[in-house]
Amino acid sequence: MSDVVEKTLTALPSLLSLDSQPGSAKLSSTSKLGALIRGITELTSKHEEEKLIQRELASLKDQVSSPNTSMRQMKEAMVRAIYCEMLGYEASFSYIHAIKLAQQGSILDKRVGYLAVTLFLNENHEFVLTCYDYKHIIPIIIYCVYDTCNTPLVEEKLNHPKEIIRRKAVLALYKFYLIAPNQVQHIHNRFRKALCDKDPGVMFASLHIYLQMIKGYKDLTASFVTILKQVVSGKLPMDFNYHSVPAPWLQIQLLRILSILGKNDQSTSEIMYDVLDESLKRAEINHNITYAILYECVKCIYTIYPKTDLLEKAAKCIGNFVLSSKINLKYLGLKALTYVVQQDPKLALQHQMTIIECLDHPDVIIKRETLELLFRITNAQNITVIVEKMLEFLHQSKDDHTTIDLVGKVAEIAEKYPLQTMNTVFSLGGDMIQPDIPNSFLKLLSEGFESEEENKKLRLFAVDSYILLLEGETRNLPQRFLQVISWVLGEYSHLRNDLDPARVMTLLTKLLEMRQTSSETKTWVLMAMTKLCSGEASVSIARSVCEDLSSSMDTVQRQRAHELLLLSQDRALRSQLLPLCSDPEPLEVDSSLSFLDAFVSEALAAGAAPYKPPHQRQEELAQQKALSLEPYELSLPINMSSSCVTGRQSPTLMSVSSGLSGDSAELSHKGGSTTLKLEGVKRVWGREGYLSKKEPVEEVAQAEIPSPLSSPNQHTGASGTSSNTHPPIPTPEPEQEKQQLASSLFVGLGSQSSLCLVRADIYALHVAVFQYSLSVIRPVVHFEVMGMLSYQSSHKSHEVEFTYKLPLTNFIRPFTVSTEQYGAMWLAFSNDTKQNLNLVTDGQDSLTDTLNVLKGKLNLHIVEIIGMEGIVACRLAQDQPCLLHCHIHAGTLAVWLRSPVPDLPDSLLYHCQRALEGT
Amino acid sequence: MQFMLLFSRQGKLRLQKWYVPLSDKEKKKITRELVQTVLARKPKMCSFLEWRDLKVVYKRYASLYFCCAVEVQDNELITLEIIHRYVELLDKYFGSVCELDIIFNFEKAYFILDEFLLGGEAQETSKKNVLKAIEQADLLQESHKKTKDVVSI
C-alpha cells in the first residue's frame, strides 16, 4: 500500500513541497530523497553528514547495479545520486547507469536519465562517446546538446511539425557549430530556413547561430532590420512580451547582430539608422529590461559607422545611466563610457564630477570600472594622476586577479609613456621603491631601444621634463628621484643645444642648498655638475659651490667638490674622464681588488691601520650619522601628501611656481655659506611665509597707480564691467579637492568649456578689485576661470597662474512666468532630458519639500504645484530659460527639463541631483 | 552563459548548471570561491562582479542567491532579467516558490531551467510556452503512471 502512496507522490511533485499543508511533511518523508534531505538537515556536523552520505551512496550502488531494479526505481536512485553529487560527493558509479537510463527507459525515465547525464558528464568525459548511438531521439531529448554530433539526425528534426522541436534542433545545431563549424557548413541554407520560420521562437533560436557567423551574411542586413522593426513596433504575439516590452531578448540579439554588420561599413550602417532611432525612442518605460535594450542600442550606435544625431541621442542615454541613482545602471553607464570614450573623450569630460565620485565609491566593482575608464583616457598630461590612482587601488586590492589586471595596465601605460610613468612611480613610490628600479630605468635610458632616433627623443624629453620639474617646487621630490634627475641632466643636457649648461648648473645648485637633500643625493648632484661644467658661467658657479662645500663635514662631498673644482679648470682631463655620450662598454670589474694587493701590503708594512669592513665602521660612526639624517626623515612624510598635489600637475603647469627661483637666489645672497648654518635654524622662507616677506617700501609707492585692465578674453562676449560680478565664494574643502582632481584627470581631453581669462596686474600689499561680467555661451556643469597674476619683487617680475571653478548654479536666476506662459514655452523648446531624482521624504508634502530644496539651493522659481505635479522655471543670467516639469512617480521625483539652449537641461540636471543627494 | 548556481544564504549549493566543460575539481573551486565572494557583498552594492576573467551577475531572492556567469561581452541587465524570468517560472510552477520547493524538487527546477535555457542560451522567452512544455511532460508522466499502476494492481 505504501508503495502505491509513494507512486502517487512522485507523480504529483508539487505536493512534495513543504508548504503549510497538514501532513505534507509526513508524506514527503516517505520518499527516499525526502528522507535523505531530512536526514542531512538534522545532522549537526560535517563529519556526520559525510558518514550518512557514504552510507547512502553504498546503498545506491547496490541498488543501481542490481539487475532487479526497475526503471522507475533507477530513476529515483538517479535523482538521489544527483543530490549527493551536488553536495560534493562523487557518485561516479552511477554515470554509466545514467547513460543506460537515457537510452533504454521510457520517455519519462529518459528525461531523468538525460538530466543526470548532463549534470554528471562534461563533453570531455570518456563516457560521452557511448551516448553516440541513441536510436530514438524523442522530443524532450535534444536536451543533451553537447553530445557528439549526429548532424543528420538533428537536421531531420529541423522539419518537424512541432515548433518546440524545430527550436531545439536549431539550438543543437548552434552548439554543433560552436564545437565544429566545418561539420555544419553544408547546411547553412537550413539556417536561413530557420530564420524565416513562421514561429518566432525558432527564428530567435537561429539568431544565436547568425550572431556567430554573421560576417558572411551582409546581404541579410535588411532582413534583420525588418525583423527588428516589427518587434519594436509590437507585431509579435503578446506571449513574447516581457514586462510589457516586446521580446527584449530578440531585440538585444538583433542589435548585436546589427552592430557586427555595421562595423566599419557605411552603406550597411545606413540601412539601420532608422530602426536604431526607433528603438531608442520606444524604450521609455523605467524598467531594467528597457535599460538593457538601451544599453545594447547605445553600444550598437557607437560601433557602427557614426551618425551625428544618433550619437547625440546615445550620449544623452549614457548620461542618464551615469547619473542614475541605481547602482547597476551607474555601473553600466561607466562601462558604456569606457566603451565610447576613445571616440568621444568629451563625453567623459561632461561627467567628470560623477566619475570622481565613483572613484571613491564604497563598492570596489564601481571603483574598478572607473579606473578602467580612466585607463582609456590616459594621455601625456593626466597620466601622473591616473597612475597614482591605480597604484592607490593596488595597495588596497586583495584579489589576485584584479592585481594582475591592474599591474598589466600600469605596465601598458608605462610602455606608451615610459618617462611619465616612471616619473610618477618615482615621485609616489618615493624612497620606498627598491633601489634597482631607478638603476634599471637609467640603464634603459642609457642603453636605449633599437632606434637611435627614439633614444634621442626619449633622452631629450627626459631632459626637458626634468628641467621643468627643477624649475618648479623641488622640496617634495623624493631623494631617489632627485638622483635620477641629476644623473640624466648630467649625462644628456648637452643633447639640447640651446640649453645653457649654466642654467642647469644653477638649478642643480638649488638642490644642493635645499635642506632636505641627503648627502648621497648631493654627491649625485655634484657628479652631474662635474659632467656639465663647461663655459665660463658654469665654472664660476662650480667655483662658488666648491667654496661652500670645501668646509663640509661630509668627506665624500668634500672629495666630489674638490674633483669638480679641478675638473672644471682642466677641460682636457674632464673630457677624457667623462666623455660625452659614451656608449656603454662592458666594464670588467675585478671584485677581489687583487690589483691593490701590492699597495695594501706596502701600506701595512709602513704601519697603516688594517682595513675595517663597512659595517664595523658604520657602528662606530652610528651616532654621528643618526644626527645628520634625522631632519630629512622627519620632513619627508609630512610633505608627501602635498607632493601629490603639485606632482600631479601637468608639465605645462609646472612653470607656475618659477617665482621661487628668485626666492632661492635671495636665500643664497643672505646666507653666504648657507648650507652649514641652516641645520636646526627655524626656516623663515616657508612656502606661505614667502609672500608676506615681500614688503619693500618702494613698491608700495608704485602700487598707488592702479594697473590698467586688460580686455577680457573674446570668448566671453562680456560687456565690460557691471554690477553682475559674483564675489568668489570659496567652495568647501573636499569639493575643491575633487574639482582639482577633476581638472587634473580630464586635462587634455579637448575641453571647450573653460570660459574666460581674466588678466590682472596686482602689486604687493595692494588689494585691487576688478569686476568683470561673465556670461554663459554654452552651459556646462562647471566653468573654469583662469587668470595670470604677475607681481614684482626685488626688481624681478613673476607670474602665477590661477584657476577658479564656478558651478553653473552661480549663473542660474529664478524665472517668473505664469502657468500659461510656461505651457506655451514648453512646447517650443527642443532640448530636453528626463531623470528620476531622490525625494525629500521627511515632511508631509514631499513634492513641495523637494521643490523648496531645489528652490533654495539652485535659485529656481516654482511656478505652480498641482497635486502630484509641479512646474518650475529658471533662466541663465542672460535670457536663456530652462523649464522643469516634476511629478512624483513610484517614490521618486521624475523631472523633465526643457530648454532652447543645448546642454542646459543636462548640466542643470546634474546640479538638481547633487542638491537632492544629501537629503 | 557559462554556468548558473543557486545557493542559500548559508552558502549551501541548491542547484548548479554548467554550460562549459570543466573538471569536478575546478567546478568545486569556482563554486566555493564565488559563493564566498557573493555572500560577502553588501545588499546595496552592484549586482555585477568582475570575477577572475568572468562576469558574474547575481541577485538575491529571499534566502536564495541566483548567480550566473556570462561572457564579457554579454549584457548584464538582460542576464539579470534571465534570472528574474527563471524565478517567475519557478514561482508560477510551484505557486509562490520557496527554498524548500527547490530543495525537495530540484529535478523539477532543472527541468524548468532546461526548457528556458538550452546550452547556455535563452531558448524560449515566452513564459507561457515554457510552462506549457513542462505541464505537458508532467501530464504525460501522470497518465503514464496511472496506466502502470492499473497494470500492477
TrEMBL record, chain A:
Cellular component terms (Gene Ontology): AP-4 adaptor complex; endomembrane system
UniProt feature, compositional bias: Polar residues: 647-661, 708-726
SMART domains found in the cross-reference section: AP4E_app_platf
Gene3D superfamilies xref list: Leucine-rich Repeat Variant
Signal sequence extent: none
Chain residue ranges for the region called Disordered: 647-671, 696-740
Principal subcellular localization: membrane
Domain AP-4 complex subunit epsilon-1 C-terminal stretches: 813-917
Subcellular location as annotated: Endomembrane system
Membrane topology recorded in Swiss-Prot or TrEMBL: Peripheral membrane protein
Family per record: Belongs to the adaptor complexes large subunit family.
Role noted for this protein: Subunit of novel type of clathrin- or non-clathrin-associated protein coat involved in targeting proteins from the trans-Golgi network (TGN) to the endosomal-lysosomal system.
Subunit structure: Adaptor protein complex 4 (AP-4) is a heterotetramer composed of two large adaptins, a medium adaptin and a small adaptin.
Protein name (database record): AP-4 complex subunit epsilon
Organism whose genome encodes this protein: Neogobius melanostomus (round goby)
From TrEMBL, chain B:
Keywords: Coated pit, Cytoplasmic vesicle, Golgi apparatus, Membrane, Protein transport, Transport
GO BP term, example: intracellular protein transport
A molecular function GO annotation: clathrin adaptor activity
GO cellular component: AP-1 adaptor complex; clathrin-coated pit
Membrane disposition: Peripheral membrane protein
All copies of domain AP complex mu/sigma subunit, residue ranges: 1-140
Pfam families per UniProt: Clat_adaptor_s (PF01217)
UniProt signal peptide: none
Compartments, as annotated in UniProt: Cytoplasmic vesicle membrane; Golgi apparatus; Membrane, Clathrin-coated pit
Domain of life assignment: Eukaryota
SUPFAM superfamilies in alphabetical order: SNARE-like
PROSITE patterns on file: CLAT_ADAPTOR_S
Segments passing through the bilayer: none
Job description of the protein: Subunit of clathrin-associated adaptor protein complex 1 that plays a role in protein sorting in the late-Golgi/trans-Golgi network (TGN) and/or endosomes. The AP complexes mediate both the recruitment of clathrin to membranes and the recognition of sorting signals within the cytosolic tails of transmembrane cargo molecules.
Self-association and partners: Adaptor protein complex 1 (AP-1) is a heterotetramer composed of two large adaptins (gamma-type subunit AP1G1 and beta-type subunit AP1B1), a medium adaptin (mu-type subunit AP1M1 or AP1M2) and a small adaptin (sigma-type subunit AP1S1 or AP1S2 or AP1S3). Binds to MUC1.
Protein name: AP complex subunit sigma
